[in-house]
Design a protein that fits this description.
mainly alpha, 4 helices, elongated
Amino acid sequence: MLRRPIAIVAALVLFAEACAVVLVNWVLGLVAGNQHMSLAGMDPKAISTGAWVAGGLFGLFLVGCGIVLLVVGIRDRAPGRFGRIAVIACAVVHGVLGALTVGLVGWYAFAVLMVVLALLVYVLLAYVKEPGAPQPEDGAPGTPGGAPAAA
């Protein structure tokens, strides 16, 4: 099945995206600081610092989601509750950014964000736990509830 390689590819894509986001915000912070840009009288130093902090935090978020996806791909097991929530939040962010990107940047950027969104949604759906599937008990292997095996 393709779910392991797709989870690993999605993790690598998120790592690359994290690097790009940090780089873009670093450049924006430098430009805002060097040009002494101000927004509604705000200190230019605060704007550049805010761009750097926002880029760092969003980069850390993307790296964290990438680590979750990498672990999912290596272990071939569904993420835990926290990991699943993080990947869902990452998918939602990509959907919203994709919708905003169409008008601000263009269709190419929209297509890139939608490919990343598709990878995230595929991983989420490929590792769904079956609701009616029996869960292993804490007993002996192969016996339900630890009951002795019939000979």
